[in-house]
């Protein structure tokens, strides 16, 4: 197949802005099939979350300092119409929440609720004995988000390392799933989403974090990330999944093993072998279905040739791959990040 490059900057994805001048490597072949090549955004969008508003997508990522490649960002907000070309919009917060004396704002989860946009987020330091999960609300997807304070602290809810929130609504009720290597848990939230109510239910064991639920064909699929997220080229992050007929579980893999056993789960995605490719792929965002019915999987990963920024920050860029469904189970092709040109998602304007 022969490719030629178009000279127009928007095709190459050159977005010269405060965030990054890196590009999503987009080509067009002689049969007019648009393709792209990972990563779709650099230098950093760690722990991504994703929403669709009309014809546009918004992605959000953990607080990070991009150093010479974009500076400090307090929850970056990106915008795209095709999941491939992303433009930095602004930071989600005008000022940092102050209900903890110190810590980072990590792993946001954004959902449109009525006419509002709710962002649950983690507030924690590395090794924090009492991290918490907060809520911020905005009238617009790009923000600014106004902080509503803590939903709960780890000591209050009785779960160590309470970070990585995921919000879901079920039969008119609000729920939050959360946890990081001390179990994944589910709890009901108040109608305003600001407090946990009722009992917590354990969904998975101590081997997972970064929970995400996707519903398909009568099942709830619980995705989680295992391994180490943030050791540059040595990161062992990978994505596992289990499924259940009920939101509250039990979640099992294809062999019937329950995720609460602390070791099980169906492998979806892991690093590429060898010295090239992507280390630590994981903490996936929401799955998006394009106009041809194809599912797409966004996550962060680190190019093994440049796994860190000059300031030492893990260079967790944004990656995109088609998600396959085989015998009722989701998987990325070869269970590895795609490295070569791939056909783009199809969205009609």
From TrEMBL:
PANTHER family: ARABINAN ENDO-1,5-ALPHA-L-ARABINOSIDASE, ARABINAN ENDO-1,5-ALPHA-L-ARABINOSIDASE A-RELATED. Belongs to the glycosyl hydrolase 43 family. Gene3D superfamilies: Glycosyl hydrolase domain, family 43. It comes from Algoriphagus jejuensis. The keyword Hydrolase applies. It comes from the Bacteria. Transmembrane segments: none annotated. This is Arabinan endo-1,5-alpha-L-arabinosidase.
């Amino acid at each position: 197949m022969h490719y030629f490059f178009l000279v127009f900057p928007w095709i190459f994805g050159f977005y010269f802005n405060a965030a990054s001048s890196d590009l999503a490597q987009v080509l067009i072949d002689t049969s007019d099939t648009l393709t792209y090549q990972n990563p779709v955004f650099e230098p950093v969008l760690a722990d991504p979350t994703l929403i669709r508003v009309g014809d546009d997508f918004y992605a959000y990522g953990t607080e990070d300092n991009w150093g010479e490649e974009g500076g400090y960002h307090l929850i970056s907000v990106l915008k795209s119409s095709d999941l491939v070309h992303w433009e930095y919009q602004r930071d989600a917060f005008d000022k940092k929440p102050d209900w903890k004396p110190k810590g980072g704002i990590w792993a946001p989860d954004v959902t449109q609720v009525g006419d509002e946009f709710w962002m649950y987020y983690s507030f924690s330091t590395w090794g924090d004995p009492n991290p918490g999960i907060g809520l911020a609300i905005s009238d617009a997807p790009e923000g600014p988000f106004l902080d509503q304070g803590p939903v709960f602290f780890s000591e209050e809810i009785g779960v160590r390392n309470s970070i990585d929130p995921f919000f879901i609504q079920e039969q008119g009720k609000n729920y939050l799933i959360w946890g990081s290597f001390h179990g994944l848990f589910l709890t009901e939230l108040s109608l305003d989403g600001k407090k946990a109510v009722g009992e917590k239910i354990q969904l998975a064991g101590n081997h997972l974090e970064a929970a995400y639920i996707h519903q398909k064909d009568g099942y709830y699929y619980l995705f989680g990330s295992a391994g180490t997220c943030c050791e540059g080229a040595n990161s062992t992050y990978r994505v596992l999944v289990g499924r259940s007929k009920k939101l509250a579980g039990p979640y099992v893999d294809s062999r019937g093993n329950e995720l609460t056993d602390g070791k099980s789960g169906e492998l979806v995605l892991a690093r590429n072998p060898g010295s090239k490719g992507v280390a630590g792929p994981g903490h996936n965002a929401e799955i998006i279905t394009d106009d041809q019915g194809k599912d797409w999987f966004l996550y962060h990963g680190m190019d093994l040739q440049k796994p860190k920024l000059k300031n030492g920050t893990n260079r967790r860029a944004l990656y995109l791959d088609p998600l396959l469904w085989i015998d009722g189970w989701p998987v990325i092709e070869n269970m590895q990040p795609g490295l070569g040109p791939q056909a783009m998602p199809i969205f009609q304007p």
